[in-house]
Every structure is written in C-alpha cells, then in structure tokens.
Design goal:
Elements: H1 2-12, H2 22-37, H3 80-89, E1 96-100, E2 103-107, H4 109-112, E3 118-125, E4 131-132, E5 156-160, E6 166-173, E7 178-184, H5 185-188
Antiparallel strand pairs: 1-2, 2-5, 3-4, 3-6, 6-7
Helix pairs in contact: 1-2
C-alpha cells in the first residue's frame, strides 16, 4: 500500500510542475522511487516492484569448506538426519555455564555427545566473533561412535569468574545446514 502511495506522489510531482517531456518525467519517477523505497526495499511476497524501482540484491550464498555427507539413517546417530531431532529437542541445553574454582566454565558436553552428525561447531562469548571449537573425531570403530574418550579432551573452556554474559553457538550439520542459538548467563548457569 505504501508503495502505491509513494508512486502516486512521485508521478504527481508538484501542482502545475509537469515535466517538459516524458523522459524527464520517467527520470524523476525513478529517482524519487529509488529514494523513497531505499536500497534494500523488496516487495512483499507476490507483489511486483513499482516502475523504476531496483530490486534488492540477493546475498551471495555462503560457500562452506565442507562437503555434504549422504543422509542415510544407520541407527548409530552419525548423520544430520539422525541427530537434528535430538538437537532440536535439547536446544535449551546445548551449552552450560558453571562457576567453579574461581572461574566460569563453558561446557559443550551436549553437543559433543551427538557430534558425529556435525562437521563444525563455532561459538562466541559476549558478542565476540564466532570461532571454531574443534570437535573430537567420531569413534566409528566402536558400538557408540559418539562416545567421549579421555583422549578426546575436555568439553569446556575456562573464563574469568563472572565474565561470561552470553554464548552464541552455531552448529553446522553434515548435510551443510546450520543452526544458531544465543544463550544468556542466567539461562545457561548451572545451579
């Protein structure tokens, strides 16, 4: 509706200020619409752009440095197909913050427990840019490929006590889809 109103105003110009020729009128409409609609304006679903408007540029798709894996349910929870329902159901507990021994510990135990359907884990603390958190390898040679062994390391990072206010987590599944959640301290703090 706003688009139509802006177009009518642009086409009408000022009272008695009709352009000398049609090409001048078209140039005025184009400039006015571009200014009124803004560079990021896009029509609502199913609407066409008004004459002279320039559609918003489509963002370039992000190229990931991974290859999508075939999604076949094996019953071993090693693909996105199998672990996405688990991650969706446990979304509120992907991470935990614990105050321990004068430090904040940020745990990713829940994520590591189903890591075989992931290709990457990225996280950021307190609005810092996301950085990779390397995942332990899957133990495909065992009955429980997602098992955490001592040689896999510890599923937490240490920060100064009280310093962690938010944690953003981005998971990249092995089908190359992503999911991202930001947690605040109060919601993730362990009692």
């Amino acid at each position: 509706m706003l688009d139509i109103l802006l177009m009518v105003i642009a086409m009408a110009g000022g009272a008695g200020d009709a352009p000398a020729d049609a090409s001048a009128k078209d140039a005025t409409v184009t400039e006015t619409l571009a200014l009124d609609l803004g560079k990021d304006a896009a029509p609502a679903s199913g609407e066409e752009l008004p004459p002279g408007a320039v559609p918003a540029a489509e963002p370039e798709p992000e190229v990931l440095p991974y290859e999508a894996e075939q999604q076949v349910a094996t019953g071993r929870f090693t693909t996105a197909l199998e672990v996405k329902p688990i991650f969706n159901a446990t979304r509120n507990s992907w991470i935990a913050i614990r105050e321990y021994n004068g430090q904040d510990l940020v745990y990713v135990t829940q994520i590591w427990s189903w890591r075989c359907g992931l290709v990457a884990l990225h996280y950021g603390v307190n609005d810092e840019p996301l950085e990779p958190w390397p995942l332990p390898k899957c133990h495909e040679d065992t009955n429980s490929p997602n098992v955490m062994k001592p040689e896999d390391g510890l599923p937490y990072r240490e920060y100064p006590l009280g310093s962690v206010e938010t944690v953003t987590v981005e998971l990249i599944f092995d089908d190359l889809t992503k999911d991202r959640v930001t947690y605040n301290r109060k919601g993730a703090l362990m009692p």
